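Justification of resources, computational component.

The compute hours requested in this renewal are based largely on the per-chain cost of generating structure records like the one below. Each record pairs the submitted sequence with a full structure-token output. That output is archived, and it is also reused by downstream analysis tasks.
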Amino acid sequence: MKSALVCGAGGFIGSHLVKRLKREGFWVRGADLKFPEFAETEADDFIITDLREPVNCRAIVDRRFDEVYQLAADMGGAGYVFVGEHDADIMHNSAAINLNMLEACKNRTIKRIFYSSSACMYPQHNQLDPNAPVTREDSAYPADPDSEYGWEKLFSERLYLAYHKNYGMDVRVARYHNIFGPEGSWRDGREKAPAALCRKVAEAKNGGSIEMWGDGEQTRSFMFVDECLEATTRLTRSNWTGPVNIGSEEMVTINQLAEMIMGVAGKQLDIIHIPGPLGVRGRNSHNDLFEEKLGWRPSQTLNEGIKKTYPWIERQVELMRGSNAP
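The structure output for this chain reads:
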């Protein structure tokens, strides 16, 4: 039986990845500061541990795993990453995890390790035009991320590639673009735009209104979690290192995203635009390199993903209301 280690298995993508690997017949160990919040973990072994400590990383890497997935990071949506209040924690915590995990895997002679970087590492000067953002993989330099979160991701990319070059480790580096789906953060301050807007629409009465940061004309693309996992496992098991984008090319404005969610919910709501943290003006995944190297592109539309995500968040809102009822 093949074995896999998933770091960050208590998080959104990590918990879904554990489920996928189990369906494929892997023995899976998960590691995180916490268990998944919204469903029981399917990991064969789940260790609650702090990966910022080297001794803990050595403890979880106590055998030869066929695949290691390093998803653990200090992260969140715009309300967490772009406000400036968490910059030191974001950089220190995530960098420490990556330094420790790479060293632990090197010392166990584990070769195959996947690292989840982020589209936030792309230069902000290439993302000023909401209609024509540039996120080709070769556009990363000269470096100019718009957040300390992006700078840490860029550093860690280079760290993994250095271990590949110096120690012969088969690292795989992907740049995630806004992954969403059920069982993710939706009200804790770390949620991203799809979950936040699904929550606001679910909480609003038909004919009412929701608030949105900025004018809503900033653009993004959003990838459903199942397609992210397909791309992640394809890259991990390939003979190519990356870095490569993993995301959707279906770019929408945040206003359009909100209208799509309203359509799924069957509600007509006004949008009230308010000041708030925004990030870059435009961002979209560029998938030509992934298709060239691995022969695959995502096929699920954003609307299909929202139809799977909104009912789950609507249910969470209903449960929350029920628990607060007198």
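The chain has a mean pLDDT of 95. The domain at 193-220+250-283+301-318 is CATH 3.90.25.10 (UDP-galactose 4-epimerase; domain 1).
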